[in-house]
Amino acid sequence: MRALTWHGKQDVRVDTVPDPQIVNPRDCIIKITSTAICGSDLHLYDGYIPTMQAGDILGHEFMGEVVEVGHGNAKLKLGDRVVVPFTISCGSCFFCEHLQFSACDNSNPAHKADMSEIAYGYPMGGAFGYSHLTGGYAGGQAEYVRVPYSDVGPIVIPDGLEDEKVLFLSDILPTGWMAAENCAIEPGDTVAVWGCGPVGLFAIQSALILGAHRVIAIDHHPRRLELAKSLGAEILNFEDVDVHEALAEMTGGIGPDACIDAVGLESHGWAIDNVLDMAKAKVGLATDRTHALRQVIHCVRKGGRVSIPGVYGGMADKFPIGALMEKGLTVKSGQTHVQKYSKQLLEMIGEGKIDTTFLISHRMPLEKAPDGYKMFKEQQNDVTKVVLKPH
Amino acid sequence: MTTLDLEAKKEIGDAPVSSSVRSDRAAIDQQDRDWENGTLVGRTVTINRPRQDVYLFWRDVANLARVMENVERIDKIDDRRSHWVVTAPAGRTVEWDSVITEDDPGRLLAWESVEGADVRHTGRVEFRDGPPGRGTEVTATIVYDAPAGEVGRILAKLFQKEPKIQARRDLRRLKQFMETGEISTSEPPDAAPRA
Ligand SMILES: NC(=O)c1ccc[n+]([C@@H]2O[C@H](COP(=O)([O-])OP(=O)(O)OC[C@H]3O[C@@H](n4cnc5c(N)ncnc54)[C@H](O)[C@@H]3O)[C@@H](O)[C@H]2O)c1
Ligand SMILES: [Zn+2]
Ligand SMILES: [Zn+2]
C-alpha cells in the first residue's frame, strides 16, 4: 500500500510499504477514506519529538471502512464505517476503567514502554503514528491501518453523516472539548484561548457550549482569528497588542477566569524568553519553547484555571512556578481521553449542535501529503486544516 | 530470603528491598547460600484481576512461556518441577530445572534452580490485594548468579546494563495478557511475541 512516512526533519515521503495485517484477536484492519494532518504532526515534522525512526508511518486522525476483523472482536463487522480515536486503549486496565483512556497501561508494547517510563516516571499509553514513545504504531496517513483493541476505540458512524462531519472525532474535536471541560467553566466566566489552530478553534466552540460568558482568542494569523470571531469569540492579535494588558483591561482588571494553551511546544513570537528557548533548542539544551504557556500563567486571574491541551515533550526552564503558586492556580492537561467523549460528541454533531467542517481549508490526495505538511507549516494563515484522501 | 528481608529492612524502612540503591549488596549477604556474585532484582505490578486468578495463572508454570519474552519452552516434570529453556544472547540457549520450594495458595510462590543450572537463581512472587477494587499487586523478586564462561559474560553484561529490564518487561506482558487477553505489539505478525 501507499503511506506517508517520516524520514527526518521536514522530510516526509509517500512510499510503498507492506500492507498491515491482523496480529492480535481484537485487531481490525481499516481501509482509510479520510485522514487529516494535525498540529501534533508538525512537532514530528519539525523534529521536536524524540524516538522517531526513518520509515515510520504518520497519521493519527483517520476514519474508514472495516475490511478485516480479528476473531476476538465481537463489536465490529465488515463494512462498518468507523472513526478511530488516536489513543489506543485496552478498555480493561485501571486507567481505561476510570475513563483516562490516554493513560492506558497496556497498549504501549512492553519493550517500547521503557522509554517513556524513564522519561516520565511511568509509561505512556499507545497512540497511532506518534513516535516510539507511544508504542511505534503505524499511523493512518495511509491506504490501510491495523487498529489494535478495535473493540474499544472505533466509533461506528451511522449512515448519512459524511466523513468530514465526523473525522475530527478522532482527535481535535474531543481535544478542544476536553480543553474546555478542564476549565471547569462557571456562569459569568471569561475564557482566554491561546492559539487559533484547529484545537484552539474547537476549544472556543466548546467553551461557549459549556457556558462561558465570553471567550477571548489570541493568535497572529488574521484568517485564523477571523474563524475564531465567526464562532463568537473576541479576538486579540499578539503582534499588535500587549496581551496581558489587553486581557486585564477587557476583564475589568481581574484577568480571565480560565486560560487554555492550545499552542504547544512550537510557540511563535519574538518575546525575549522565546528567542532564548529557540537558541537553546538549537544547541540541544532545552527541548520545549514555552512562551505561550508562560503568558497563560501570567495572565490568568488569581485562583484561576489553566488548561493545557498543547503538546509538550521534554523540559522547560524559566517556568513561572512563582506565579502558579502565589496565585493559587489549578492546572489540568493531558493527551485527550478521546473514547470518553466519542458518543456525546457524535450525538451533538448529528443534532447539528457542533459544526466541524468550517475549519477545513484544503483537501488533497494522499500522494500530495508532503505538500500538505509543508503548506500547513509554512502558510498557517490560509491553511487551517488539510484532509487527505487515500483512495 | 527471609533473613535477607529482615536485614535489609533495618536499612530501608518500609520500602521493598529491591528499591535499595545498594541492592547489589543487599542480595548477597547470605552465607548459607554462598552466591558467587548474586544480583537481586524486584518489581511490583498491579493486575486488574482477582488475586486467586493471578496466582493460578502463575502456578501453572507453562503459562509463563506465553508472557516471558526469552523463554523458549517450559516442560513440566511434575507438579513442583519444571525444565526451562531460555534464549540467551548470540543465538545461544541456557537451561535449568526449577523446583517450587514454597506454595501458599493465593499468596506466595517461591522457587529455586536445581544444582547444575546454567543460571543459578532463586525467586519468589507474592500476591497481595490492592486497595479495594484495585486488583492484585504482584511482587516478583529474583536473586541470580550470572553463570561462568562465555555465555555468563554475555549475560552479565546484558544484565549489568539494566538488571531490572527483563523483569519489568515480562511483568508488563503478564499484566497485558491477564487484563486484555493479548500482548500488545506494534510489529507485524511474523515479528510478534507469542500470545
Ligand atoms: N492534548 C492532545 O491530545 C492534543 C491533541 C491534538 C493536538 N494537540 C496539540 O495542540 C496544539 C495545537 O494544535 P493545532 O492542530 O491547533 O496546531 P496549529 O499548529 O495548527 O495551531 C497552533 C496555533 O497557535 C498559534 N500560536 C503560536 N504561538 C502563539 C503564541 N505565542 N500565542 C498565541 N498563539 C500562538 C499559531 O499561530 C497557530 O495558529 C499542538 O501543540 C498540538 O500538538 C494536543
Ligand atoms: Zn492530532
Ligand atoms: Zn487500558
Automatic annotation (TrEMBL), chain A:
Annotated ranges, domain Alcohol dehydrogenase-like N-terminal? 25-154
Keywords noted in UniProt: Metal-binding, Zinc
Cofactor(s) recorded for this entry are: Zn(2+)
The protein's organism comes out as Roseiterribacter gracilis
Ranked from the top, the taxonomy reads: Bacteria, Pseudomonadati, Pseudomonadota, Alphaproteobacteria, Rhodospirillales
Q: Listed GO molecular functions?
A: metal ion binding
Using the record's annotation, list all stretches that form the Alcohol dehydrogenase-like C-terminal domain.
198-276
CDD domains noted in UniProt: FDH_like_1 (cd08283)
Q: In its UniProt entry, what is this protein called?
A: Glutathione-dependent formaldehyde dehydrogenase
According to its UniProt record, what is one Pfam family this protein matches?
Answer: ADH_N
Q: Could you tell me which InterPro entries the record lists for this protein?
A: ADH-like_C, ADH-like_N, GroES-like_sf, NAD(P)-bd_dom_sf
UniProtKB/TrEMBL annotation, chain B:
Source domain of life is Bacteria
InterPro entries, A to Z? COQ10_START, ORF3, START-like_dom_sf
**Pfam families registered for this protein in UniProt:** Polyketide_cyc (PF03364)
Coenzyme Q-binding protein COQ10 START domain span = 47-164
Q: Which family does it belong to?
A: Belongs to the ribosome association toxin RatA family.
Q: Which PANTHER family would you find in this protein's record?
A: POLYKETIDE CYCLASE/DEHYDRASE AND LIPID TRANSPORT SUPERFAMILY PROTEIN (PTHR33824), POLYKETIDE CYCLASE_DEHYDRASE AND LIPID TRANSPORT SUPERFAMILY PROTEIN (PTHR33824:SF7)
Provide the protein name.
Answer: Cyclase
